[in-house]
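To illustrate the input format used throughout this study, we show a single complete record. The first block contains the structure-token representation of the backbone; no residue identities are included at this stage. The design step must infer an amino acid for every position from geometry alone.
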């Protein structure tokens, strides 16, 4: 009887220590943002944060456009969407999230007017 009780307690402890994929994604997003952001991606693009929206299963990247890129319509092209989509398709770092049908949103804000969204794209599992 004692062995069964010990085994049951160990099993419950093991189950309780398991982190769901959603919780893992939320934790990793927070950790990445705290450790790496802001991060200059190139001369005119800065990654400000990465968040996870549990309700929609969306990894959301927030960027800031600076300098010559900080104007209306600068990214409004099929080339920008294709580049983001191709990058998502080719990355192995997001395989677990892609295998589970997560969404990915990329939002680009103006540095001069941070509330202004200059470009936004969302990709679902159909896209990658």
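Output of the design step:
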């Amino acid at each position: 009887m004692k062995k069964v009780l010990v085994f049951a307690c160990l099993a419950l402890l093991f189950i309780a220590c398991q982190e769901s994929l959603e919780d893992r994604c939320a934790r990793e997003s927070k950790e990445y943002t705290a450790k790496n952001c802001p991060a200059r991606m190139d001369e005119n693009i800065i990654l400000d944060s990465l968040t996870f929206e549990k309700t929609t299963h969306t990894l959301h990247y927030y960027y800031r456009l600076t300098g010559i890129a900080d104007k209306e319509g600068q990214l409004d092209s099929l080339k920008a969407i294709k580049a983001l989509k191709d990058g998502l398709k080719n990355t192995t770092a997001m395989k677990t999230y892609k295998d589970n049908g997560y969404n990915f949103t990329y939002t680009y804000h103006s540095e001069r007017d941070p509330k202004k969204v200059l470009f936004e794209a969302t990709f679902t599992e159909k896209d990658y």
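Structural context for interpreting the output: The first helix runs from residue 2 to 17. The helical segments are 2-17, 21-36, 78-90, 95-99.
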